[in-house]
Amino acid sequence: MRRSSRIAPLLALTTASLLVAGCSSPGSDPSADASDGGKEPAAAAGSATPKLTVKGTDDGDGGAQSAVARPGGSHPGRLAEKSALKVASFDRSSGRAVITAPAVRPSPSKPGVPTKSPESGSPSGSPTATPSAPHSTAPSADPSASPSKSAPAPKADVAVGDVIASAPAPGAPQGVLAKVTKVVGKTDRGTEVNTAPATLDALLGGSTAHGTVPVDPAAMKVEPIAPKVKVSWAKTGGLHFGPKGASLPLGRLRLDVGASLPTPSGGPVSAEASATGYVQLAPKVDFSYEGGKGGGVGGASLTLSGDWSSQWELKGRAAASTEAKPLRLPFAKLHADPVIQVGPVPVVVNLDLTCYLQVDADGKASVDVKQDLKGDFTVGGSYQFAKGWAPIAKAKMHGTPVRATAAAAGKVKASLGAEASVGLYGAVGVTADVAPYLRAEVAGTASADSDGNASATGSWAAYGGIDVSGALRAHLDIFGTPIFDRRIPLGTLNREWKLAGGKGTVSRTPAGKQH
After folding, report:
1. Rg (alpha carbons) of the chain, rounded to whole number
2. Which residues are 172's β-sheet partners?
3. Which end of the chain is more exposed for a tag (fewer CB within 10 A), N or C?
4. Residue that is last in its domain, among 206, 231, 262
5. Are 241 and 157 members of one domain?
6. Cβ atoms 49, 206 nearer than 8 A
7. What is the pLDDT of residue 296?
8. Domain of 44?
């Protein structure tokens, strides 16, 4: 009996350490875990580079709430493990967090015995049995039997040095990626800790991962900031149709907008300017990570891409320049925090889009231009150990003219675009401006009469195009890679195509008929 009483505390400590490590069964045999070739120990051994699956949390079982890495152990830089720990609260300004662990269930054979039973050797325990338990007599009085039937709480939920990646949590709607710097102590809400920012290489180690995950349009929060904005979306299994019964392709978000534009003072009513149309988006996030063979990070990338389609028109005689600066009219803000599952690690992507109209016009040219635009874009950054970070800016779009007329000498350019920012765990890493536009210019002499007739002698042309600009930010070092410059420009990408044009005399009547 003395030998059994000495073994009991050892068994309790072994069980507790297995719980902290995230084993699936509190009563599993440690020797069996070491010999059965479990997934995590195999990955840690480094015999082969683990290839992790990248998927959305809508796929499969929904992914992990959190993952924990414990650097400095027997396998430094090992892949993090899926964890049952949860971030109960987080204060980003101070780094203070409260971490909770799942309660240990009572013993199946003793449903009335509390989690921290007196038989576990706690000095504060009381040998009083629970009256409602049918088996609360003789077996519970044997201290050598209790550890194997009622596991005590883990010795420590979290420890200094632990790196935690968490899906959005109270106080951290953009997720948490932090390293525990101090365990403050137990509270009635959980274990209170101090944290500092961490990087993904501490969790992904020497693994590799690459995948593209669509952003669920139904999960995007849309804030209209202009009066004439309509929002619609379509998702598999839950169609939501666009305005006037128009159906959308699955996975698309559509924004319809109409706005009046400033016109020259004293101009005729027929010269009133407006921009109307719609934008359809299907955004995707591309994530890539490659652990270095000798440690560190070999490669990484984060990009935002997607299909784009729009149809919109610009009419009238706009006067929308102020000291050579275009007039920008934001009409909707969009935000999403999709969680992509990279192996056991939940990676929280923060996506913000601000859709806008921008007009640069001299108030002289009168236009009626409409185009149907389709294509795709990719913006972001990629890292290679030997080259460092490099920007990515691509756009393949083409516009088809629906209508294009112009009258009176002057010029006008109007964009229907989106400002985008993409980050991880609340740190902005990429900013980009994707701006498809319409442009018209009329050269020569102009004349007008009181009946609203206008004419221009010379040449005129209407163009469609796209501008892409932006920058990589220092916060992309969240991968564990260095960024030497605080801001790396994407470089301006411009493509333009001709919609219509002509030479000679172009005239326009009040009824809008072209001659």
Report:
1. 31
2. 169
3. N
4. 206
5. no
6. yes
7. 85
8. 2-206
What are the pLDDT digits (tens) for 96-119?
A: 999 998 765 444 444 444 444 333
pLDDT, position 64:
66
Residues 6+ apart with CB under 8 A from 235: 216, 217, 218, 250, 251
Does the pTM surpass 0.85? The reply is no
DSSP category for residue 118? G
Residue 38, CA distances (Å) to 35, 70, 202, 397 in order: 8, 18, 21, 49
Q: Which of 284, 473, 492, 465 is nearest to 378 (CA)?
A: 284
DSSP string of 322-381, one letter each residue: ETTEEEEEEEEEEEE--EEEETTEEEEEEEEEEEEEEEEEBS--EEEEEEEEEEEEEEEE
The CA distance from 57 to 53, in Å, is 12
Q: In which band, very low, low, confident or very high, does the pLDDT at 62 lie, cut at 50, 70 and 90? A: low
Q: Residue 90: which residues within 8 A CB-CB, separation 6 or more?
A: 96, 97, 98, 169, 170, 171, 172, 176, 178
Do residues 310 and 356 lie in contact, with contact meaning Cβ atoms separated by under 8 Å? no
Instruction: Say if residue 119 is in the same domain as residue 227.
Output: no
Residue with tokens 């006067």: 319
Mean pLDDT of the chain: 75
Q: For residue 130, is pLDDT > 70?
A: no
Calpha distance 334→332 (Å, rounded)? 7
Please compute the mean of the pLDDT values over residues 415-429 and round it to a whole number.
92
